[in-house]
Amino acid sequence: MSIVPPPPTTALKPEYLDETIAARLGLPADPPVRILMLYGSLRERSYSRLVTEEAARLLTRMGAEVRIFDPRGLPMPDETSGEPHPKVKELRDLSLWSEGHVWCSPERHGTISAVIKNQIDHLPLSMGGIRPTQGRTLAVMQVSGGSQSFNSVNQLRQLGRWMRMFTIPNQSSVAKAFQEFDEDGRMKPSAYYDRIVDVMEELVKFTLLLRDKRDYLVDRYSERVEAGTPIDPVTDLSSIALGASLNAR
């Protein structure tokens, strides 16, 4: 899903937005950070989608490459058999393409929506020896129709941990979301909007910091034992680095 050029918004103060994150970290900005975004409502005026689109515009402005998955037409996990449904394949391919995710859900009956859970349930921990979520960064957000709550973001964090993702510390929870958008679907200036900017900046920072270390950070002793792959001190970069450190003492 592409982002339509937005109408003007007064919510963002661009002179305060960090658009040079890679340079300030001393890291290359190319290739751009790749972010997959999921939202949890099918309503025509879906506030989780509107929040996701605002976040996508910010990420794009910060140099990221963004894809928003459209959950319409995605079957339930037990409805299909054999070859993956085209929407399931699209979702999994996007996750494999991504370096980080953003998940945004409305809170319904104190929990995440079925729409967002259905998308996450279609992302297996392992798929033909490839893991579509492991080692990727994750930012979580929620919208509420009433007072501010954190039930959905807390549950999304739990799911991210089970999916072996690096969930960033910051998060966004927009209360009474119906009051926070204008007729064009753009977010009004508020502390809620400012928090979304904070979260997206942090997501880009963590994704850049982890992108070259991801495979090593998710390398596990138990899996090396199961695969019969001992550490090779000649070729293992961690052993080389450790040896260099010890020799320098």
Automatic annotation (TrEMBL):
Superkingdom of origin organism: Bacteria
Nucleotide-binding found in the keyword field: yes
Any Pfam family the entry gives: FMN_red
GO molecular function: FMN reductase (NADPH) activity; nucleotide binding; oxidoreductase activity, acting on NAD(P)H, quinone or similar compound as acceptor
Cofactor(s) the record lists: FMN
SUPFAM superfamilies recorded: Flavoproteins
Keyword Hydrolase: no
Annotated ranges, domain NADPH-dependent FMN reductase-like: 34-178
InterPro entries: Arsenate-R_ArsH, Flavoprotein-like_sf, FMN_Rdtase-like_dom
Gene3D superfamilies per record: 3.40.50.360
Subunit structure: Homotetramer.
Family: Belongs to the ArsH family.
PANTHER family per record: ARSENIC RESISTANCE PROTEIN ARSH (AFU_ORTHOLOGUE AFUA_5G15030)
Protein name: NADPH-dependent FMN reductase ArsH
Source species of the chain: Pandoraea sputorum
